[in-house]
Write a structure and sequence with these properties.
This protein is about 40% helix and about 15% strand. It is α/β, with parallel strands linked by helices and about 400 residues long.
């Protein structure tokens, strides 16, 4: 995979000096925290975007039938899902959709179930809509995260809890939930009339022979399922693409659609449309190369820290690593300070994803092998009492 040579010229969130200063106390730290890639986008997407802007205007657009044909084929081939375009609503972001769902189908102070450690913006959305966070913490057993189904059953039975948000693949721990696990989740939601929201934005980055199962495969059994997804992470298009809410229930979809129209959300962006359609038709080879690169990076880091006190939770999906520092530190703030200041590498502190992530850190490895190995070497040197030094 080719590294984007213009990274240092771009005003990227992850390298914004004021953001780095605020988070890490150092505006020049090497950023490996935000979930976007340092690779060049696929050549067919580059070419299609250049062609679109060359000698061409930007009037109001719609998504042509070719877009939906390409999208439908992608979903059939990759997720074994028969995508119905009538079920799709377009949204600026997944968190926008989740906010709309929560505001329309719950009341103030209702409980929203999440599974920490988990993507921190779930927590922010719940608080901003004045709902109550209900935790169904994941269990870590033998370096493998699992859903606590007994706890989930108990939380789902409470009438005040109305929604469950799952993340598949899970960010940050990297689990890809199996069909059997998802079947249990859907059963619990159905038995307790819980709205199930599945964030599947990392669905294409599946590693080491693991298999992704979309919640869309269960909509014939239970209609109160909304899948929120995007190809932004897949093809490194976070700054250009929008997201989708896939809702099979006519009743749910009408309510969400009405709110989207109220705020004029979901209009077609010309460059987004071109980038996505080209991704669906011509992005497969680039994606396969990406997955091979990420897998190689995981193996390389696992070898590098094999004799250290830092433990790796091997990811089944995503391009994030979940690193375990529990054998090194007892205090999460000390961990964050020592690693950040000592190495000069900016990682996400695990507690940003909930207190259940304390003494872990998330590392973005969607970059060159040289960079990740250099970074992990610096991190190891910054860790006190590490047996490898």
């Amino acid at each position: 995979m080719k590294i984007d040579k213009k990274l240092k010229e771009l005003p990227l969130t992850k390298s914004n000096p004021s953001a780095l200063e605020s988070l890490f106390g150092n505006g020049y730290i090497t950023p490996m925290w935000v979930a976007d890639m340092e690779f060049q986008i696929a050549k067919p997407i580059q070419d299609a975007l250049i062609e679109r802007i060359s000698n061409s205007g930007f009037g109001y657009e719609y998504k042509p039938e070719s877009f939906f044909i390409a999208q439908k084929k992608w979903y059939e081939q990759n997720y074994q899902v028969d995508l119905n375009k009538k079920h799709i609503l377009y949204s600026p972001s997944i968190t926008t959709t989740i906010s709309v769902l929560i505001e329309n189908f719950t009341s103030v102070s209702d409980g929203i179930i999440i599974q920490p450690p988990v993507f921190m913006e779930f927590r922010d959305v719940i608080r901003n809509t004045k709902r109550r966070i209900t935790k169904n913490p994941l269990k870590l057993i033998d370096k493998h995260y699992q859903i606590d189904f007994q706890d989930l059953e108990e939380k789902a039975k409470l009438e005040t809890n109305k929604v469950l948000i799952i993340c598949n693949p899970h960010n940050p721990v990297g689990r890809v939930w199996t069909k059997e696990e998802l079947n249990q989740v859907v059963r619990i939601c159905k038995e307790n009339d819980i709205l199930l929201i599945s964030d599947e934005i990392h669905k294409d980055i599946i590693l080491f022979e693991n298999k992704f199962t979309s919640a869309l495969q269960f909509i014939k059994d239970y209609e109160k399922i909304v899948v929120c997804t995007s190809e932004a992470k897949t093809f490194n298009l976070c700054g250009i693409t929008d997201s989708m809410a896939i809702i099979s229930s006519d009743e749910l979809r009408k309510v969400v659609s009405r709110t989207f129209k109220k705020y004029n959300l979901g209009r077609t962006n010309a460059l987004t449309r071109v980038a996505l359609e080209t991704s669906y038709t011509s992005g497969g080879t680039w994606l396969n190369n990406l997955i091979e690169t990420i897998e190689d990076n995981v193996v390389s880091i696992a070898q590098e820290i094999e004799n250290s006190n830092i433990q790796l939770i091997k990811p089944e999906g995503t391009y994030q690593l979940w690193l375990d520092f529990r054998e090194v530190f007892e205090d999460t703030n000390e961990m964050f300070a020592k690693v950040s200041e000592g190495s000069g590498i900016g990682l996400n502190a695990g507690h940003w994803f909930g207190r259940e992530g304390a003494l872990f850190m998330r590392m973005n490895i969607a970059t060159s092998k040289d960079k990740i190995l250099n970074s992990i070497t610096k991190i190891k040197k910054a860790v006190p009492n590490d047996t490898s030094y």
